[in-house]
Amino acid sequence: FDPLSVATVAAALEQAGHDADAAASLAARAGGSIGRALDLADDDLEALRTQTLALVAELGSASAAELSAYAAELAKGPTPAGLEVLVSWYRDLMRCALDADDIGLANVDHRAALAASAAGLSPEIALRLLTVVCDSVEAIARNANKTLAIETMLLELRALVRRAAPPSWTSPRP
């Protein structure tokens, strides 16, 4: 079967009792699957998504200790669901860095934050951010230590974000 359209999944979610905004957000992230959308509606998964996106927003200023603690939290469970959030975020960020349209964005409910994050970000850096996350997912699939792989990934992401950010200092006056 082909994936269902976002509109079809959203309509099914609305029929199941979700409000229109939540249904649209879940449908965009579900990859054309009503079952996946219903799974994503879980309060714990939504809290994890919120926590993960908050970390992404503060990644450049996060300390190594904060990243290490978050890596340990993210690594819990058989499949680190937070990694799916990171993959979708950085995939959307790359699309925004390339000035692509909104069609296919998984995080449409965070479009403004994506646009702000992509502003001034080169497509090369956006691709590197996505590659770091995908490489970590692959390493974990090959049975790497989840906590270590995620911690390393977060530190690499932080380094890339810091390099991409404009300097916070000003040059001395002549």
Give the strand content: under 5%
Helix/strand class = mainly alpha
Shape verdict = globular
What's the mean pLDDT score?
89
First-last Cα distance: 67 Å
Low-pLDDT windows of residues: 168-174
Number of strands: 0
3D structure, described in words:
This protein is mostly helical and 174 residues long. 67% of the residues lie in helices and 0% in strands. The chain contains 9 helices and no strands. The chain has helices spanning 6-15, 20-29, 34-40, 43-57, 64-74, 81-97, 111-118, 123-141, 146-164. It is globular. The N and C termini lie far apart (67 Å). Residues 168-174 have low confidence and may be disordered.
Structure characteristics:
174 residues; mainly alpha; 9 helices; 67% helix; disordered C terminus
Topology (SSEs and partners):
Elements: H1 6-15, H2 20-29, H3 34-40, H4 43-57, H5 64-74, H6 81-97, H7 111-118, H8 123-141, H9 146-164
Helix pairs in contact: 1-2, 2-3, 4-6, 5-9, 6-7, 6-8, 8-9
Brief characterization of the structure:
The chain is mainly alpha-helical and 174 residues long. The protein has helices at residues 6-15, 20-29, 34-40, 43-57, 64-74, 81-97, 111-118, 123-141, 146-164. Helix 1 (6-15) packs across helix 2 (20-29), helix 5 packs across helix 9 and helix 6 (81-97) packs antiparallel against helix 8 (123-141).
